């Protein structure tokens, strides 16, 4: 089982997809715990292996006045509290080599942002912590090219690499998901579909990224049908007022129905794969 080495992961025998989900950024302790509590209850009910996601800081910002975080150590301690409170693993993204060792003290999975996945020093620093390294496919990269990012992790002595597809640029202000890439990337590493970021509409003249949350279920269903190992879905109880990526996040109230539908599809697909 691909999640076997992650502490506290549950439901690994359910033959389900796994889920990375939570807010885009850690805005505070109360909001993180509130979201985690809800998602843990849903995933326990549906027998979905779950990893809580929250960025301890946001470095890839369009404008200098965009929210970037509440303080590194403060946010990382909140991620640890989520893990200890709900007995689930956690994932956060890193942006500099110095982030790797620091974040690895608090979380179970280190995520390399799509814009930075070609940065060898960053990937190697993450790999050397011994944590699972989740490599986001660059919006400008082909699926085949991700084998080199995976190989960097392995060459650094770490076999625990994942790939996450978060869409490919289609013009200046839109992205598409090329589902032909899913089976290709699964040859290199377990592959996750980042549903919500694939629906971003970047490079808006306002400097605030747009999105199409109305298409979340469409993209997620297609991912499950095409055998993705996991899904990445950012969620918030108040997306309109979230401090980062609110335009493409799923409202927390809609998560259970979405996941219920996807689990049903997965059960059907499993019959074809058996």
Automatic annotation (TrEMBL):
Domain DAHP synthetase I/KDSA: 8-267
EC number per UniProt: 2.5.1.55
Location of this chain's protein in the cell: Cytoplasm
Example of a GO MF term: 3-deoxy-8-phosphooctulonate synthase activity
Pathway: Bacterial outer membrane biogenesis; lipopolysaccharide biosynthesis; Carbohydrate biosynthesis; 3-deoxy-D-manno-octulosonate biosynthesis; 3-deoxy-D-manno-octulosonate from D-ribulose 5-phosphate: step 2/3
Keyword flag Transferase: yes
Annotated Gene Ontology cellular component terms: cytoplasm
Reactions this protein catalyses: D-arabinose 5-phosphate + phosphoenolpyruvate + H2O = 3-deoxy-alpha-D-manno-2-octulosonate-8-phosphate + phosphate
GO biological process: lipopolysaccharide biosynthetic process
Keywords: Cytoplasm, Transferase
Enzyme class: transferase
Entry similarity comment: Belongs to the KdsA family.
UniProt cross-references to PANTHER family, sorted A to Z: PHOSPHO-2-DEHYDRO-3-DEOXYHEPTONATE ALDOLASE
Protein's UniProt name: 3-deoxy-8-phosphooctulonate synthase
Upper classification of the organism: Bacteria, Pseudomonadati, Bacteroidota, Flavobacteriia, Flavobacteriales
């Amino acid at each position: 089982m691909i999640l076997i080495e992650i502490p506290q992961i549950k439901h690994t025998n359910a033959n389900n997809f796994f889920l990375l989900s939570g807010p885009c950024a850690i805005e505070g302790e109360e909001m993180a715990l509130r979201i985690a509590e809800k998602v843990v209850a849903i995933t326990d009910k549906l027998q979905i292996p779950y990893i809580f996601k929250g960025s301890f800081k946001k470095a890839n910002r369009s404008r200098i006045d965009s929210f970037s975080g509440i303080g590194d150590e403060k946010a990382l301690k909140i991620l640890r509290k989520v893990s200890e409170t709900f007995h689930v693993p956690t994932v956060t993204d890193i942006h500099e080599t110095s982030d790797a060792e620091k974040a690895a003290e608090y979380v179970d999975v280190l995520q390399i942002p799509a814009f930075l996945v070609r940065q060898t020093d960053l990937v190697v620093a993450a790999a050397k912590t011994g944590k699972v390294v989740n490599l986001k496919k660059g919006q400008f990269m082909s699926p085949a090219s991700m084998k080199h990012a995976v190989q960097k992790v392995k060459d650094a002595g770490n076999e625990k690499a994942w790939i996450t597809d978060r869409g490919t640029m289609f013009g200046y202000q839109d992205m598409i998901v090329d589902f032909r890439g899913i089976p290709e990337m699964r040859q290199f590493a377990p592959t996750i579909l980042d549903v919500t970021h694939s629906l971003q509409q970047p490079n808006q003249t306002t400097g605030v990224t747009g999105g199409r949350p109305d298409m979340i279920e469409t993209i997620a269903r297609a991912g499950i049908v095409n055998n993705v190992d996991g899904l990445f879905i950012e969620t918030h109880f108040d997306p309109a007022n979230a401090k980062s990526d609110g335009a493409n996040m799923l409202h927390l109230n809609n998560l259970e129905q979405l996941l219920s539908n996807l689990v049903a599809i997965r059960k059907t697909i499993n019959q074809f794969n058996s």
